[in-house]
User: Fold this.
Amino acid sequence: MKIAIAQFNPTVGDIDGNLNKVLTVMKNTSKDKMDLIIFSELFICGYPPKDLLVKSWFINKCEVAVKKIIEFTKQNKGPGVIIGSPIRSNNNYGKGLFNSALLIGKGKIIFQYNKVLLPNYDVFDEERYFDSGEEIEVVKYKGEKLGITVCEDVWNNPKIFKGKKIYKKDPLKILSSKGATTVINISASPYSINKETMRRKIIDELISKYDFNFIYINQVGGNDELIFDGQSRVINNKKKLISIFPSLIEKVEIVDLNENEEIAYQPINKIVSIYEALIMGVKDYFLKCGFEKAVIGLSGGIDSAVTCVLAKEALGSENIIGITMPSVYSSIGSIKDSAKLAENLKIKFDIIPINVIFQQYLKSLKPMFKNLPENTAEENIQARIRGNILMGISNKFGYIVLSTGNKSELAVGYCTLYGDMSGGLSVISDLPKTLVYEVAKYINRKEEIIPNEIINKPPSAELKPDQFDQDTLPPYEILDKILHFYIEEDYSIEDIINTGIDEEVVLSTINKVIKNEYKRYQAAPGLKITEKAFGFGRRIPIAAKYF
Amino acid sequence: MKIAIAQFNPTVGDIDGNLNKVLTVMKNTSKDKMDLIIFSELFICGYPPKDLLVKSWFINKCEVAVKKIIEFTKQNKGPGVIIGSPIRSNNNYGKGLFNSALLIGKGKIIFQYNKVLLPNYDVFDEERYFDSGEEIEVVKYKGEKLGITVCEDVWNNPKIFKGKKIYKKDPLKILSSKGATTVINISASPYSINKETMRRKIIDELISKYDFNFIYINQVGGNDELIFDGQSRVINNKKKLISIFPSLIEKVEIVDLNENEEIAYQPINKIVSIYEALIMGVKDYFLKCGFEKAVIGLSGGIDSAVTCVLAKEALGSENIIGITMPSVYSSIGSIKDSAKLAENLKIKFDIIPINVIFQQYLKSLKPMFKNLPENTAEENIQARIRGNILMGISNKFGYIVLSTGNKSELAVGYCTLYGDMSGGLSVISDLPKTLVYEVAKYINRKEEIIPNEIINKPPSAELKPDQFDQDTLPPYEILDKILHFYIEEDYSIEDIINTGIDEEVVLSTINKVIKNEYKRYQAAPGLKITEKAFGFGRRIPIAAKYF
Assistant:
């Protein structure tokens, strides 16, 4: 079989645009004597469509698009198409919708497979929208027995779920028992640091168990918090990897299942993959929101520097403006370092000092604050002045503010709501501080893009005299360990202490994490790169007591 | 049977505190020769515990609490207890957790029922955490055949779901066929405007169909966005309402199923129910977050006035401070009206003008803004100055800022992110503007609490000269209709136009709703009172294209 695999970047909700991509591939490959063209999961509406799926008019629009594809295969007499779309169910109970993979050809739907295993954890809400498919059948097509599956259907492996077997059914086992010669898996599987290693392990395992050709198609692109990395691939029934698609890049490739030349698997370095995923995340957020330019507050610290580099790579130097907003507590070094960064990146750069505005706030608040000692209130006022200035520029010129906070500070609330937390997108909010340093080093691998002074100075919020992060926080190596255990691994406090970290440090850290849920509730969407990011996939009550 | 029904207000996560409430009732009723004491759904951990349920240590703590109740029934030889708790499953697949109702007595778990129908729509995520129970059995207890159910189990009625039958199983039908003489439903069913009418309709229907006694126990209290209204009730097998609990109030009542005196059902007026629910929502948010005092920006408009009255009712005059922050565009009337409101409410009141600060921003931004005409950028800067002042006061004195925006303006983005949207809790964010007026009228039912000037003046943001809401928005009666159709009823644009509203008005309104998803993503949690509130129960992508 000769198959065109379309690893594409759909826009959520843009049914016309996504359909156009489908029809264009169908036209362009018509002369290639293909047997099949394959698109990814829910390609018609983009993934994840979230609550657009509960709107009847939205499903109607998807159905119209499917009809247009059917129509096209009638006129064209070309190859069959496998594509994902939400399809209404005929059952007289249930949510009334399936997450389906359709095999379309010769003017009709030849076969419909409805996703059986519906992920409903972390960022996934599929049981909110879909009924689970009940039939798992193969379909004869051009001499093959195709087993068509959708994403999670092939991931019924306890290794993914910390040893837990969360699904009863195993579609692969059933398809194999029914004689599937080729299994196709259309996916929308978002990037996270260890995802590709996990994917490879699981695919290796299933390939070792079964004798079918295995075709895996994943979408690419950023959709709000999620970044889809593609890396679609084909492994033939001789267990040879005969095609692997690039990470994060749209591509249509024609694969012949009879091809026998094995391709060497090239794992991508972890830091490189993070770096490139974040750039894609920024790029698509702007593109899909209809914006071009970003404004970033440059503090002279490493977080804003890394954010700025990523934004420049995503949007181009000409579309970035860096603003440094020194207060009396800002070191001269910070301003100089920010200016140097801007120069290195060839971005527009401006200085807007905040002290006069700050003094005016203090004067206006004096009748209320009286002679109370300065504390975080005054620190936050400065951060919020900066937020207001950036948002003012954003509103005036139509830029998006990029928020620069990292995961460690967001976790313990070492950030100001409506201040430095302001922004349309939070670029590195899922990177613990220690990881931010690693990315910075990678950025500087060839030349000094981020001034070394920024990387080497001790981290400081510069909101009061001689302030350093480590005055109030444990060293980042320890902090990040605690946070990893608590947030990503769901360890209990006792278990964390049992790893050997000082009890008092653990307790005060977890206390801060819990106390700052309210800030994160109002945080900008942040690009997800770990197994557990703050935001949509982590749902913690605020008015609660569990510490 | 003599049954004590505990309509209580658990705190989410506070397992020790909730357990204490249980043990106290068990002690206090021990002399009353009870047969049974009943608590609400997931009472051990409070509802909704959200992602605390995926933490193994949290489930362990719930299990310990259950063991303490078991222990207590052993020592006490008192009545049995029915209570909700998350309980691990023994299945070797699935999520591994049930939402269970336990019948505990004589030192053991006599019977365990696992919730079968798991709501997974709107604010409910139960399929994220729980496996559906598979057995639906009655249990013989003190001469009765008890059918124990959990919340949604008795709501398998298409009337709730716009005619859709979303569940296949009907636990009530099965329990009835197995001879249940008394059905107990332990619930955590949040308030919304029409919920009680719906509840009554559904209960009437099931009572007309079946011949058992029906005992419904609901929790009370506010938990973040959700307000639980209680209204627990008992209907005997002669179809007589023999007990109904008050709305929103904690109460333990002893009910005898042999009691035959019918109680008159007193429906609560819609506006009264909203008013009281919101007060409960504010009160519990503060209590459960560990705060006492609120600061509110008083603009002289109706939204901040209504918010202020509700806060005063929830927290007491002595715990509220109103701040008016006039700009050059504020009318003298607005300041006077706010002062009068504060006087009427006997709350602390202060005036902090923002113009000097605003001028300083303009001066600082002049090198960037140059001579560009003033627009929303300058308007938003003023709103954000106010946000900064309120947050400064909040940080200095440990108050929570209450956000005052209504649903209509939040829908179309007629509000400033990090400006008037700032706050720990949004009190009236689920009230369309037209409903805000109705609540204001109710507040003034006996005397002028909100100055009539505030109610009668045309709504204005007062962010530029002679600005009125209706310069850029359609009349609120029309706006609220469009928003209701689009947000609550999921109408398509065509369907809304077909109701007879001007096409251009519909299009520009929906366009605004979609464009402002990004603001709402970062909005404070808001108290839910309609079928579809912004926030947790409405999940819409931002970087998307569907208009």
Q: What stands out?
A: Residues 444 and 452 of chain A are 9 Å apart (CA to CA). Chain A has a mean pLDDT of 96.
